[in-house]
From TrEMBL:
Residues bound to ATP: K38
Biased composition (Basic and acidic residues): 296-305, 366-380
Annotated region (Disordered), positions in chain: 284-308, 348-380
Transmembrane stretches, start-end: 384-407
Keywords: ATP-binding, Kinase, Membrane, Nucleotide-binding, Transferase, Transmembrane, Transmembrane helix
Protein kinase domain sequence ranges: 9-269
PROSITE patterns for this protein: PROTEIN_KINASE_ATP, PROTEIN_KINASE_DOM, PROTEIN_KINASE_ST
InterPro entries: Kinase-like_dom_sf, Prot_kinase_dom, Protein_kinase_ATP_BS, Ser/Thr_kinase_AS
Organism: Blastopirellula marina
Organism ancestry: Bacteria, Pseudomonadati, Planctomycetota, Planctomycetia, Pirellulales
Molecular function GO terms recorded: ATP binding; protein serine/threonine kinase activity
Protein name, UniProt field: Protein kinase domain-containing protein
SUPFAM superfamilies: Protein kinase-like (PK-like)
Length: 603
């Protein structure tokens, strides 16, 4: 290829490309360090909003330093093209592993997932969401360790859309429902995607299969994936349940945080090794994840980055970037413990449109000197401000200490459980919604957690039933509901006016969409509510039937007694009974008796 440069990086070879840009293998001509250089689509450089978002996003991502996250070295602009430099990893992508060398032991899939969860935990604690967790963005090193690629980059292209000009923002096969349909992205979207990746590692296929994005999105909204333990044999029940929970359509029903997920995965790895059987796929047609076009091609084992003189490395250390053309640069990343953490970070000022394209560099040493001089000038001119700040800090510290002294401690498991149990006995389950969430989040391994989870699900059922009742009463739009939910709303409308028709509809819903345990999320709750309604309705109708049968029996006996003295009145009663019981199967015996009475009066 024609030699090309991005800042001080000389681009040696193209190693991947896709909708979010092209990846090159590059070498820093000042230090000899190798890096993966991702050049973003040219359209970004012409959009001022995207440029500013690019700078803010990358400055945030530079703070991520975790062994399970591909290290971001820096970012910059070269002749109008935006790029960033990242760690060049020795290994292959998880997509390639699944395609070419499928995972045969569930423990390996759980270990990989745990390392992904470790990386997500740190990022989420810093307020950073990845938004595009998928096998192609997960790297498996030569040492069989996991590194997450492209952290947070998807947000540069728009967080809520599925597609963009030139590529896909997120991947439909692994995207959380709320992200796919623009309903907002939280850390739980990453947990859904991790669940989909774990599903793919175990089953060698994503949760939903389809020939088009539209087909996959339709299944993502309305369907539930085949339970993983139906596709894959010899995996622990706890693992199957965890995968199901991660793939819940409602974010509130998923594992609450990456930290809790880490504990669940760690517990699975503590399972006795006598469960380590080779995984066998059940007889289902499968589709392994294909290697995407923008797959990160990793470096060869012989491409070791040279280590140069420390002074040379220090001069190449993390410069700063000013995309807006102003004279103030962002503060550079410093050293940790006196040791340089990364090779050069390339940053440039935007060239004047009237000048020829160029790249300007600012080294960390130069920036530190400039910052130091500015700070000295500020200190001389505003010493009194510093004194006020110190005084304010002391006051704030005193307030914090006082609050800590008087603030109540977080309740332990026993205190929380007692509060929950008391409210249950008082029939006020909704009052302890927050306490139940707190208990399940902080004490998932407590022996009482399963009972609290059942109470939480009961509360969810009650709330869902109220939503259905409100929708049925007000006639709100039902476009977003599953067909089973729509039919349930129709049944509710006839509950008071035609209970027998309601009973037939409820029976039909359960027969058509059941069994309940084969469904998940709101559909499973809808079927549970339908089953409860049917039981209640059967009990009410049974009581009514017994009462009506006793009353009709009494009128038949009366007609029989007066048939000799007042045959016309007796005839009227018999005819009335036949009319009342014409569509009541339970009254066939009574109707037969009324028919016999009429016959006797005709003789």
């Amino acid at each position: 290829m024609t030699e090309k440069k991005m800042g001080p990086y000389r681009l040696e070879a193209t190693i991947g490309s896709g909708g979010m840009g092209t990846v090159y293998r590059g070498i820093d001509e000042r230090t000899g360090d190798k890096a993966a250089i991702k050049v973003l689509p040219s359209g970004m450089s012409h959009n001022e909003g995207l440029r500013e978002r690019f700078q803010r996003e990358i400055e945030t991502l530079l703070q991520l330093r975790h062994p399970n996250i591909v290290r971001l070295y820096g970012f910059g602009e070269e002749e109008g093209e935006l790029f960033y430099a990242m760690e060049l990893v020795d290994g292959k992508s998880l997509a390639e592993v699944i395609v070419k060398k499928p995972i045969k032991n569930w423990r390996t899939a759980v270990r990989y997932s745990l390392e992904i969860a470790y990386g997500l935990r740190q990022a989420h604690d810093m307020g950073i969401v990845h938004r595009d967790i998928k096998p192609a963005n997960i790297l498996v090193t030569k040492n069989d360790k996991i590194k997450i690629l492209d952290f947070g980059i998807a947000r540069l292209f728009g967080a809520t859309g599925v597609t963009m000009a030139g590529g896909i923002v997120g991947t439909a096969d692994y995207m959380a429902p709320e992200q796919a349909f623009g309903e907002g992205v939280t850390p739980k979207a990453d947990l859904y995607s991790l669940g989909a990746v774990l599903y793919a590692m175990l089953a060698r296929q994503p949760p939903f299969r389809g020939s088009t994005v539209t087909e996959i999105l339709d299944k993502l909204r309305y369907s539930d994936p085949i339970p993983i333990d139906r596709l894959v044999e010899t995996i622990p029940n706890d693992l199957a349940q965890l995968v199901t929970q991660l793939l819940e359509k409602n974010p509130d029903q998923r594992v609450p945080t990456a930290r809790v997920l880490c504990r669940r995965l760690e517990a699975l790895l503590e399972t006795p090794e006598d469960t380590d059987f080779e995984m066998n796929l059940a007889d289902h047609s499968t589709r392994v994840p294909s290697s995407p076009a923008d797959e990160y091609q990793l470096k060869d084992s012989h491409d070791e980055a040279p280590t140069l003189d420390p002074n040379v490395r220090q001069m190449a250390e993390a410069p700063t970037m000013n995309l807006t053309g102003g004279g103030h640069s962002a503060s550079p990343q410093g050293n940790i413990g006196g040791k340089t953490e990364a090779p050069a970070t390339i940053v440039t000022n935007r060239p004047n449109e009237k000048e020829s394209p160029q790249t300007r560099f600012t080294t960390v040493a130069e920036q530190r000197k400039k910052t130091s001089e500015e700070e000295q000038r500020r200190e001389k001119g505003s010493a009194w401000v510093n004194y006020l700040q110190i005084g304010g800090l002391l006051v704030a510290l005193g307030v914090v200490v006082a609050v800590m002294m008087i603030a109540p401690r977080k309740p332990d498991a026993d205190m929380l459980y007692h509060t929950i149990e008391t409210s249950v006995k008082d029939g006020n389950l909704g009052a302890v919604d927050t306490q139940m969430d707190d208990f399940l989040d902080r004490f998932p391994d407590d022996s009482r957690a399963s009972y609290v989870a059942e109470l939480k699900e009961e509360l969810n059922l009650r709330r869902r039933e109220k939503q259905y009742q409100m929708t049925a009463m007000l006639g709100n739009s039902r476009k977003q509901l599953h067909p089973a939910e729509q039919l349930y709303l129709e049944a509710l409308k006839t509950y008071d006016t035609d209970p027998y028709a309601t009973r037939r509809k409820l029976q039909g819903i359960l027969l058509t969409y059941g069994p309940i345990e084969a469904n998940q999320g709101d559909v499973a709750r809808c079927l549970t509510l339908a089953e409860r309604r049917l039981k209640q309705l059967n009990a009410v109708l049974a009581a009514q039937t017994n009462q009506q049968a006793a009353s009709i029996r009494e009128r038949l006996d009366y007609a029989k007694r007066i048939s000799t003295d007042d045959p016309e009145r007796a005839r009227q009663i018999y005819r009335g009974v036949l009319q009342l019981l014409s569509d009541r199967t339970w009254g066939s015996n009574l109707a037969a008796e009324a028919e016999a009475g009429l016959e006797s009066l005709r003789r």
